[in-house]
Amino acid sequence: MNQLAQNPSNPWIWQPTMNAHNPHYSQMHRQQQEGTYIKEPMFEKPLTPSDVGKLNRLVIPKQHAEKYFPLDGESGEKGSLLSFEDELGKQWEFRYSYWTSSQSYVLTKGWSKFVKDKKLDAGDVVIFQRFRGHGTDERFYIDSRRRGSIEANSRVVARPDAENPWSSCASPHGYMNSVNSGQQASSSTRGSSRRLRLFGVNLECGPDPAEPEHLASGSWN
Amino acid sequence: MNQLAQNPSNPWIWQPTMNAHNPHYSQMHRQQQEGTYIKEPMFEKPLTPSDVGKLNRLVIPKQHAEKYFPLDGESGEKGSLLSFEDELGKQWEFRYSYWTSSQSYVLTKGWSKFVKDKKLDAGDVVIFQRFRGHGTDERFYIDSRRRGSIEANSRVVARPDAENPWSSCASPHGYMNSVNSGQQASSSTRGSSRRLRLFGVNLECGPDPAEPEHLASGSWN
DNA sequence: TAACGAACCTGATTA
DNA sequence: GTAATCAGGTTCGTT
Fold first, then answer.
1. Which nucleotides of C are covered by protein (CB under 7 A)?
2. For residue A132, what are the CA distances in angstroms to A70, A136, B185?
3. What's the CA–C1' distance between B106 and D9, in Å?
4. Contact at 8 Å (CB) between B18 and B44?
5. Is A50 (CB) below 7 Å from strand D?
6. Is the CB of A32 under 7 A from strand D?
7. SUPFAM superfamilies, per this entry (chains A, B) (predicted)?
């Protein structure tokens, strides 16, 4: 089911694995039969009640929006379309625009479908990553994790994957590796003290430590 | 501090007085170094709780809106911007539009700032006037008075002005003169019966007669 | 016609 | 004190 597999010699590098039977077999993989990508985190957004409510929009913090999704003059007026792939290879398109009245960047059209499909609630965290290929080749990846979870997406939580060596309290997709520069974090799945540093945030991973706020709002920068 | 002074020979006519030290020295006066204006009342709106509440809008009675602030087809769609000057020469801009859902004309953007700045409460009255110059030259003026007061604006109430010969229970800016065609109203600042007719409305000005409703809702037409 | 979505707005909070 | 940000709203056109 994984469309990308870690390169055994370098956990930063991910390579597509072909699986034509996957109904969500992504355009990315159809178009690019080979090649390597660097998967890197962009930012996270802990969802507010408004982000998952009736407003049908996700506010993207300005510093992240301007860094990763710059709008040129033309697209700034009418907004643009951003395409993402989720952990199943499913494609998601969102209208992305800037609201001058509130000076904020938002995902609008398509966002509510994502919220519904992923059953997102306030406090859940949406994770934005990108795969960078050769030159300016760049593909966006969207993921989420439940409030209080440090799992990067629902796949590991809801569908434990025997292929994945990371267990609960570790990070799938090599986040830890990339953040820790290949050095594996010292976490154990047994024992009373389970602590790790993820993306610059100290995280407790004991037996449900009442979801401390610093965990839910942990961000990459 | 007065930006306009009555013409000694005709109280209907007001002429700008220059005062470069006034921090609110208005564009009107900067642009028009000379000239005369006819100041005339348009209408008043006694403020409802909604007008000063969280709705951040002022409903303008339809007959007044259509008479004084007509919206053409183009501006009817997106609304327009109305500029006013207050008694201090400060400029106020309000978005003005028609809400089809409620069939009403409203001031929206900018209105809440005015309410806050003037400390307006329900029952207070907002006064709309215009200065008419040559041809179609027209400038809007916005003012307010406290609930139960017949003072035309806070200047006389809060900042007694030695230059102004009108005392409490009289009208500044020559309203009385213009309405009574130069004939001074028979009001006295002493005595048990203080009554005057202002813009066609009989007003009691006794010692705080429990703010009768007809006073608070007195209107020019 | 009811629901959705795009645009607009504002106040609390923060830097 | 001032300015920027953004969560939480509203309206209104579209479907």
1. 4-11
2. 16, 7, 82
3. 18
4. no
5. yes
6. no
7. DNA-binding pseudobarrel domain
Q: What is the pLDDT along chain B (221 residues), one digit of tens a residue?
A: 445 555 655 545 555 554 444 444 444 444 444 467 788 999 999 999 999 999 999 999 999 999 999 987 666 667 789 999 998 889 999 999 999 888 999 999 999 999 999 999 999 999 999 988 777 788 999 999 998 887 655 443 333 232 233 332 233 333 322 223 223 333 333 333 333 333 333 333 333 332 332 333 334 44
Kindly state which CATH superfamily the domain B4-216 is placed in: DNA-binding pseudobarrel domain (2.40.330.10)
Q: Shortest CA distance to A87 belongs to which of A20, A38, A39, A147?
A: A39
Question: Does residue B128 reach within 7 angstroms of strand D, measured from its CB?
Answer: no
Residue ranges of the alpha helices (H) in chain B? 27-31, 62-68, 73-78, 111-118, 154-158, 175-179, 213-216
Task: Give the residue nearest to nucleotide D10 (CA to C1').
Answer: B55
| C3 C1' to B167 CA distance, Å | 58
Strand extents, DSSP E, B80-198? 80-85, 91-99, 104-107, 125-132, 138-145, 195-198
Q: Return the domain boundaries, chain B.
A: 4-216
Å between CA of A182 and C1' of D8 = 42
